[in-house]
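Sample entry (221 residues):
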Amino acid sequence: MSQTLYKTPFSPAYWRDALADFKKPRTLVFSALMVAACVALSYLKSIPIVDNVRVTWGFLARALCALVGGPVNALAFGFVEDTVSYFMNPDEGYNPFYIFTTMLGVFTYALFLYRAEVTVTRVFLAKLLTNIQNVFLQSLGTYLWYSSKGYWIIAGERAVKNAIMLPVQTIMLVALFAALLPILHRMGFLPAQAARLKLWRKPEWMGRKKEREEQAVPWEE
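Predicted structure, serialized as C-alpha cells:
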C-alpha cells in the first residue's frame, strides 16, 4: 500500500490513490464485511439518551469503511449498504432519497479520514458535518416521502436530536479508532503515519523546530 498521507483531498494524487484502493480486491472484501456489519449492528438495541433520542451503531461501520476504502469506494459502499440494509430490515417504505444521504455521509467521513493523520479533531469535524447533513437532507427525505409535518419542524426536531448525539457519537468513534488503527495498520490497510489516533495535528513549525534541535551540535567547553 502507498504510504502517502495528504493534508487535504484537493490533490490529483489523492484521487488517483482513492481510485486505486477502490479497485483492490481486499478493499472490496473489507467493504462487504462492513456492509454485513451495518446489517448486524442494526439488530443491536439502540442506546437511549433522553426522551426519543437513541444512538444506533451503524455509523461506526460506515466511518471505518470510509477510513480504509476512501471516497470513491465510499460512494459505492453507501449505495450497496443502504439498499441491502433496507431489504434485510424493511420496516418502512423504500425511500431512494436515503441512498443519496447515506452515500454522502460515508463520502464525507472519507474526505476527513482517508489517507490522513487521524486526530480527535478530524473525527469530531467529520461527525459534525454528517450530523448537519442528517438535519437538512434526511429531513427533506422524510418530508417528501412520509411526513405531514412542515419541513422546518422536522429539521428542528432532528437538529436537537443530532446536537445531543454528536458528543456521544464522537466518543464512540474515537474509542473505535483508538482500538483499531494499530490493528488495521498491521493488516496493511493503513500507512504507518496513520497507525495511531492523535489528539490533534501539530503545526509544521513545531516539527521543524524539533528537527533543528535534534540536528544541533551541543557546545562543549
